Amino acid sequence: MTDSDITRRTGTGIVGRLRSVGRAMVETYRHGGRTVVAAPLILAIAVVPEFLQHIAEIHLGMFDSVDRFRALADDPLRWNFGYVKVAGFLIAILATARFWSVGSVRRTLLVPPLVLAKVVGGLVLGYVLAWPFQWLGQQGLSPVIGIPLKLVSAVIQAGILIYLVGALLEDRSVTAKRAMTALLPAAVLLCVLAAIAFVPSQGLHMANHKLALGQPLPIVWALMIFDSLWVGLFAGLVGSALFVGSRTGLTWNGWTVRPRELDTRAGVERELAVLDPRTV
Which of 253, 108, 275 is nearest to 184 (CA)? Predict the structure, then answer.
């Protein structure tokens, strides 16, 4: 089966293509918002560590003033919770992407060994392939040579990124060969969608911390509770961006799944997966 057999061409012209990309952005936020109702336990993986760190920060008096916040930014107690928070945030992102693919919290968390092997193998392969080009590009070579080497490294990393996400989503259409060739546009779109989800969410997250500085304790608590819940939605949005960017599978010829057909196609594939003994 060739790539053209599994892709669908978008409407002709730049307007049709931009409309489809715009729909992918809408689907990112729509799926992210729906995660709050569909999979709150997954978002709790990010919410709980975030709230625990806020308890430690309030205990330390970090929000008493700007100077106090800066002085305690590297406090060991804060960072003990911080490492767990970052891990929880990343796990919630990946779990959200996987949830929208497999359709249940149980299947999301019970990752098959073969899937884990593919993800680990992809990480190793990506490092082995991209590192020599990245290293050569940092050796002070002429820009005529160094820049192309860095571009090759970036292309390899983009292909590996879409392969890793596809493996995590158990999407059999994302093979290593297809990820490094036809699906490179999907890697670019995935990064764009992730940025569109991440940047405003991070902006509100940071603004919330600044707003809490110097406020009475009840207001600080209210803001930090809101912030913890917001971080959960934040993870849901970024995870949904990974799902939409990977599952739509933008290629040089068109979409593997049109953004507006995501829900229909995902539902059909989940039903087929239940009947497929390889997914048990």
Answer: 253
d(CA 161, CA 154): 10
Instruction: Tell me what pLDDT residue 7 has.
Output: 57
Say what percent of the chain tops pLDDT 90. Answer: 71
Tell me the C-alpha distance between 272 and 280, whole Å. 12
Amino acid at 191: C
Report the distance separating Cα 94 and Cα 45, nearest Å: 11
What integer pLDDT is reported at residue 268 of this predicted model?
A: 47
Helix/strand/coil (H, E, C) string of 30-67? HHHHHHHHHCHHHHHHHHHHHHHHHHHHHHHCHHHCHH
The first and second tokens of residue 274, run together, are 């239940």
> What's the burial of 56, exposed, middle or buried (CB within 10 Å: 0-12/13-18/19+)?
middle
Question: What pTM was computed for the model?
Answer: 0.88
Q: Which two tokens stand for residue 262?
A: 């995501």
